[in-house]
Specification:
With about 300 residues, the protein is α/β, with parallel strands linked by helices. About 50% of the residues lie in helices and about 10% in strands.
């Protein structure tokens, strides 16, 4: 007798929800996506098919995808995992988790893909909150290997252990976040760099193009081979200590978002989504740049695959 196919639910079928659906469909899970938006549901099969193709997976795995406009329509007895990837609104997320607690089997993990809210704030009112955790992907989720597994104070460690193994089985690289702090790991590291980069641009030290080149072709290039901790093991922590002692007092430490970003917000210059940010965009340029980035990411995955299997 064939083994029972595992089933999972995703709340939200937008960019992140669609890419997460691709990951699980590629792993031959039965994927049930709930979105109240007909437009989102109509676009989802095409997004998942394109994602499967980019992963080199059988496009026939799209058969694993089912869509719903409400949670009650799902056959919950067959569901082994729930991933919430809805709009970043804390009240909405709390409401959804209350509904999920009532609908889902009490033994399955309920996880959030949030990047803005602490897991403890989402699940603290639930009776079965020990099964609530964070599982945070990075865009584009089907291509970027990293997945943060966040343990809130109330989360059962066995839930995090199961989630980590689940993500390894799906070809991802899970990292445990042991404290439920704002921003988790990846976003805190990214924003520390971004704060300094935007200051350097605002102060006329370097152009946006210069920042991107310095990161991509400098220390960012090295990161494909080893992370910052391993790099300092190689160069020596004494070198890091002396450089930090000299440089840290001069680093930008503003507690507010950069004025240059506020100025763009005021003008409605939000990047590709409005065709204007630090650069001017048209549809052809957007398509070309996104295609280039996805191609490079696919090449990077091929390089990292050996390390991910260790």
């Amino acid at each position: 007798m064939a083994a029972k196919q595992s089933g999972m639910v995703i709340i939200g079928g937008g960019i992140m929800g669609g890419d997460i659906a691709t990951i699980f469909a590629a792993g031959n899970w039965a994927v049930h996506v709930m979105s109240p938006s007909q437009k989102t549901r109509d676009a989802l099969p095409g997004r998942v098919t394109a994602g499967l193709e980019k992963l080199g997976a059988d496009k026939g795995l799209l058969k694993n995808l089912k869509m719903y406009d409400n949670l009650e329509a799902i056959a919950w007895a067959d569901i082994d995992l729930v991933v919430e990837a809805a709009t970043e609104n804390i009240d909405l997320k709390r409401k959804l988790f209350s509904q999920l607690e009532a609908l889902a089997r009490p033994d399955i993990p309920l996880v959030s893909n949030t990047s803005n809210f602490q897991i403890g704030e989402i699940g603290k009112h639930l009776k079965t909150r020990s099964r609530v955790a964070g599982m945070h992907y990075f865009m584009p989720a089907h291509l970027v290997p990293l997945v943060e597994i966040i343990k809130a104070d109330f989360t059962d460690v066995k839930v995090c252990d199961w989630l980590e193994q689940n993500q390894r089985d799906l070809g991802k690289m899970p990292v445990r976040v042991n404290k439920d702090i704002p921003g988790f790991i990846g976003n805190r590291l990214q924003h520390a760099m971004m704060r300094e980069a935007l200051y350097l641009i605002s102060d006329g030290v370097v152009s946006p193009e210069g920042v991107d080149a310095a990161v991509r072709f400098g220390f960012g290039f090295r990161f494909l081979a080893c992370g910052p901790m391993m790099q300092k093991e190689m160069s020596g922590w004494d070198t890091n200590y002396y450089a930090a002692t000299s440089l840290y007092p001069d680093l930008h430490a503003d507690k507010k978002a950069a004025p240059v970003v506020q100025a763009m917000m005021d003008k409605g210059h939000l990047g590709m989504k409005t065709k204007q940010g630090m650069w001017t965009w048209d549809d052809e340029a957007i398509k070309k740049e996104k295609g280039r980035i996805e191609k490079v990411l696919q090449q990077a995955i091929a390089i990292l695959n050996a390390d991910m299997k260790k």
